[in-house]
From TrEMBL:
<keyword id="KW-0804">Transcription</keyword>
<feature type="domain" description="Sugar-binding">
    <location>
        <begin position="57"/>
        <end position="307"/>
    </location>
</feature>
<keyword id="KW-0238">DNA-binding</keyword>
<dbReference type="InterPro" id="IPR037171">
    <property type="entry name" value="NagB/RpiA_transferase-like"/>
</dbReference>
<dbReference type="InterPro" id="IPR013324">
    <property type="entry name" value="RNA_pol_sigma_r3/r4-like"/>
</dbReference>
<dbReference type="GO" id="GO:0030246">
    <property type="term" value="F:carbohydrate binding"/>
</dbReference>
<protein>
    <submittedName>
        <fullName>Winged helix-turn-helix transcriptional regulator</fullName>
    </submittedName>
</protein>
<dbReference type="InterPro" id="IPR007324">
    <property type="entry name" value="Sugar-bd_dom_put"/>
</dbReference>
<dbReference type="InterPro" id="IPR051054">
    <property type="entry name" value="SorC_transcr_regulators"/>
</dbReference>
<dbReference type="Pfam" id="PF04198">
    <property type="entry name" value="Sugar-bind"/>
</dbReference>
<dbReference type="Pfam" id="PF13412">
    <property type="entry name" value="HTH_24"/>
</dbReference>
<comment type="similarity">
    <text>Belongs to the SorC transcriptional regulatory family.</text>
</comment>
<dbReference type="GO" id="GO:0003677">
    <property type="term" value="F:DNA binding"/>
</dbReference>
<keyword id="KW-0805">Transcription regulation</keyword>
Length: 313
């Protein structure tokens, strides 16, 4: 039996026997069918997972995951194990595989995936371990962050996924940031771009890299006017999701540059049913915490150490 199947069986057992969720509630929370919940509970008994107490056959993080889900009102939390000497690339691959496993479990009947930008999402597109071909539709959530073809752009991430996994990728033919609000409005009125923005209403699942916001962020670096730099300095920057910037309390930072940016806005994002945040490491903890407080993400995939930190603060 695969480790991911054992992990799901353990989580279902904990919800049912320890947290006293009904099978219907578990099915809704984990986006699986009620008959599947019943089968998993029966199989858990056969496999010896459910005895007098729940015994996990893999490294047990399910209790901590469930505690954080309840504390922060998240749909689901998933951890990857991380040691201090592991390179970031290996950690990103672990997160990529955990995210692909989660998607395969919950996306039956869900067609439209929204993808933001960033190196962790790129690794998900490049390395995510999907077991079979899909028919997803991939929607870029932010315009191009670079004009030199760097691989963390939303368009490229969508393209890689369509080639590796199957499905259709859409192209947002616009930069993330333009010179003025008037130019941004002109882009939004262009037929091909308007089509992408209209698709935001159809997205079932958004996959978002949680970034640390600063003036050196690719969205801002070299693009801010002196006035906009002063605006940003007046706000306590914390985290970013696409073009969305927020403070340590999870409050949106409304600045002039947002009006000349092209991508999904926070109101559209909050209408997406499943919003997966991917991030890890000490440097991103405050941004992760603030993203949860702002309800920008309702599913979190991160490292176990960050999970333990979230449970203590």
């Amino acid at each position: 039996m695969l480790e991911k199947e054992l992990e799901l069986m353990t989580k279902v057992s904990l919800l049912y026997y320890k947290q006293e969720f009904s099978q219907r509630e578990i099915a809704k929370k984990l986006d699986i069918s009620r008959p599947k919940v019943s089968r998993l509970l029966n199989k858990a008994k056969e496999e010896g997972i459910v005895k007098i107490e729940i015994v996990s056959p893999v490294k047990d993080t399910s209790n901590l995951e469930s505690e954080i889900e309840l504390r922060y009102n998240l749909k689901e939390v998933l951890f990857i194990d991380k040691t201090d000497n592991q390179p970031d690339e290996l950690i990103k691959i672990k997160i990529a595989n955990k995210c692909s496993e989660y998607l395969e479990r919950i996306t039956e009947g869900k067609e439209y995936l929204g993808l933001a930008a960033g190196t962790t999402l790129y690794k998900f597109a490049e390395e995510g371990n999907f077991s079979n071909r899909k028919d997803y539709r991939y929607i870029p959530l932010i315009g191009s962050l670079s004009d030199i073809g760097e691989s963390y752009n939303s368009n490229e991430i969508c393209s890689i996924l369509s080639k590796r996994v199957g499905g259709t990728n859409y192209l947002l033919s616009a930069p993330a940031l333009v010179k003025s609000q008037e130019i941004a409005n002109s882009f939004r009125d262009e037929t091909r771009i308007k089509r992408i923005f209209n698709l935001y209403k159809k997205i079932d699942v958004a996959i978002l890299g949680i970034g640390v916001a600063s003036k050196n962020h690719p969205l801002y670096k070299g693009h801010l006017t002196p006035r906009e730099e002063k605006e940003l300095e007046a706000h306590p920057l914390c985290g970013s999701l696409g073009i969305i910037t927020y403070d340590q309390n999870g409050e949106i930072i409304e600045t002039a540059f947002l009006k000349r940016s092209l991508g999904i806005d926070f109101k559209e994002l909050l209408n997406i049913p499943i919003r997966i945040g991917l991030a890890f490491g000490v440097k991103k903890r405050e941004a992760i915490f603030a993203a949860i407080k702002g309800e920008f993400v309702n599913v979190l995939i991160t490292d176990l150490n960050t999970g333990q930190w979230l449970n203590k603060i």
